[in-house]
């Protein structure tokens, strides 16, 4: 009798448990496959996540905070680079399969968690020169991304670069709007690489404050007022690190071909605000955004006689400080775009600033009370077509017939805090 009751109780217990927790859970999982949740499932020093098969790998592209891989689908984890392997493994890659239990299983059939796989070393981005012309045939497209093997290179973003004058015209990438706010934080910093540039250019030497002071003293005399400890030219990212979700992609932006000299008060002022706006817009519209970031004209500053002198950081006149930084922000789904343009001259007088295409910031409701503050980088906005009439860097077939407007009413980008 007692035994009998116990059995009934056990059956009842299993039935209840199955009805409420375990079975519901496994049913749920059945439909969902294996999960990749951002940023929690991504370990420090993560490998590259590749979808597809060897020879046809693609960079895994998340579509939401939680991503579901169907049962039987595969994800390859890869640690490229010299003497780099997966932690606690002699191998530099491993293929995971989403098992029927909705957990990833490794090549030996064991259930594993994504967060247990990282690389022994940081992954270095690389640069791949192509023969594709850009910027009215003045430059070549350089792909920046990861080399998988001798035949396969996976691109994260592109730069249009003239290898004879050593000038970058623009950089282009995409912001993954639905996912960008779930980016994986990483405190690692990386030295900028001079890959792709001539060894004589010495981009890595000219940005330090001491050499800037020396350079400006040569041009303007030792009494020059432009460069001191608080005012100097920084490495202004064209494609910014913070637009990418994975730290490996963020760190791959650290190439000199992806920067131009930008006054620090502008770089940390309205330029940071524009980068923030681009991410906010992509995130608000939950859409893939195409971004082009470039420079226009060379900055001149007056000497003691009031004559304008063009600014180059090096005596060979290769690395010029641009007068303008511009960023095209395009919502692909709406075929809508806008160009934000910032003056890289904290010393300009208001009456010498010429907006070279009609200002549409107000019409697009993309305004900030900081845009008119010259020290932070005087900023205005144009429609893509009007901008293309003046600046001839964008591909001919790149268009955005509609004006991109702010997704939220009265959303002002006035905060000083949390621009990252
Ligand atoms: C991988 O994880 C281990 C253990 O947490 C850590 O010591 C190592 O620094 C990580 N690798 C990288 C490249 O950050
Ligand atoms: C993204 O995830 C959220 C939360 O899980 C969900 O509400 C939303 O529908 C998902 N979006 C898409 C496009 O799947
Ligand atoms: C990965 O390991 C394989 C086998 O050891 C080796 O042939 C290959 O060169 C490595 N790949 C990289 C990018 O280091
Ligand atoms: C490393 O790769 C070899 C060859 O593919 C495989 O036999 C071995 O199991 C792998 N080792 C680990 C730890 O995954
Ligand atoms: C994977 O993660 C789950 C939940 O965090 C944990 O219960 C499980 O033990 C982990 N498995 C491995 C192999 O680390
Ligand atoms: C620039 O790159 C192109 C294409 O790769 C190449 O043909 C040309 O020789 C290079 N010029 C210089 C000056 O390096
Ligand atoms: C640095 O130069 C800027 C611009 O000329 C000037 O406003 C600032 O007062 C200077 N700072 C110091 C510490 O000299
Ligand atoms: C523009 O043309 C290039 C090369 O001709 C092509 O690769 C690219 O996909 C085109 N872009 C658009 C937006 O049509």
TrEMBL record:
One of its GO terms (biological process) is apoptotic DNA fragmentation. It holds the Pfam family Endonuclease_NS. Residues 153-387 form the DNA/RNA non-specific endonuclease/pyrophosphatase/phosphodiesterase domain. GO terms for molecular function: metal ion binding; nucleic acid binding; RNA endonuclease activity; single-stranded DNA endodeoxyribonuclease activity. Belongs to the DNA/RNA non-specific endonuclease family. This is DNA/RNA non-specific endonuclease domain-containing protein. Mg(2+) binds at residue 267. Keywords: Endonuclease, Hydrolase, Metal-binding, Nuclease, Signal. One of its GO terms (cellular component) is mitochondrial inner membrane.
């Amino acid at each position: 009798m007692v035994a009998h009751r116990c059995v009934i109780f056990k059956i009842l217990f299993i039935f209840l448990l199955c009805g409420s927790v375990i079975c519901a859970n496994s049913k749920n999982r059945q439909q969902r496959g294996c999960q990749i949740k951002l940023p929690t499932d991504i370990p420090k020093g993560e490998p590259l996540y590749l979808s597809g098969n060897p020879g046809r790998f693609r960079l895994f592209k998340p579509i939401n905070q939680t991503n579901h891989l169907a049962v039987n689908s595969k994800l390859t984890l890869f640690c490229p680079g010299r003497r780099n392997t997966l932690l606690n493994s002699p191998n530099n890659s491993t293929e995971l399969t989403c098992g029927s239990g909705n957990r990833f299983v490794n090549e030996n059939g064991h259930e594993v968690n994504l967060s247990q796989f990282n690389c022994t070393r940081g992954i270095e981005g690389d640069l791949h020169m192509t023969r594709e012309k850009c910027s009215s045939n003045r430059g070549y497209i350089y792909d920046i991304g990861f080399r998988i093997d001798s035949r396969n290179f996976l691109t994260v973003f592109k730069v249009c670069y003239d290898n004879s004058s050593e000038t970058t015209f623009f950089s282009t990438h995409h912001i993954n709007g639905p996912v960008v706010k779930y980016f994986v934080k990483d405190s690692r910093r990386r030295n900028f690489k001079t890959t792709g540039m001539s060894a004589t250019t010495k981009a890595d030497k000219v940005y330090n404050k001491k050499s800037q002071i020396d350079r400006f003293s040569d041009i303007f005399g030792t009494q020059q007022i432009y460069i001191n400890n608080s005012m100097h030219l920084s490495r202004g990212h064209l494609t910014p690190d913070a637009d990418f979700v994975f730290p490996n992609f963020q760190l791959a932006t650290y190439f000199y071909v992806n920067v131009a000299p930008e006054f620090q008060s502008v770089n940390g002022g309205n330029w940071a605000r524009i980068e923030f706006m681009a991410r906010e817009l992509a995130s608000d519209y939950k859409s893939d955004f195409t971004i082009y970031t470039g420079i226009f004209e060379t900055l001149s500053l007056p000497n003691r006689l009031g004559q304008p002198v063009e600014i180059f950081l090096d005596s060979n006149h290769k690395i010029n400080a641009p007068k303008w930084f511009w960023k095209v922000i395009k919502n692909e789904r709406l075929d809508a775009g806008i160009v934000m343009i910032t003056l890289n001259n904290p010393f300009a007088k208001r009456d010498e600033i010429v907006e070279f295409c009609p200002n549409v910031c107000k019409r697009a409701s993309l305004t900030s009370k900081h845009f008119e503050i010259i020290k932070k980088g005087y900023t205005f906005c144009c429609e893509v077509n009007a901008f293309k009439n003046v600046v001839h860097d964008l591909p001919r077939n790149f268009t955005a017939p509609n004006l991109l407007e702010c997704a939220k009413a009265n959303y002002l980008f006035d905060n000083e805090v949390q621009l990252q």
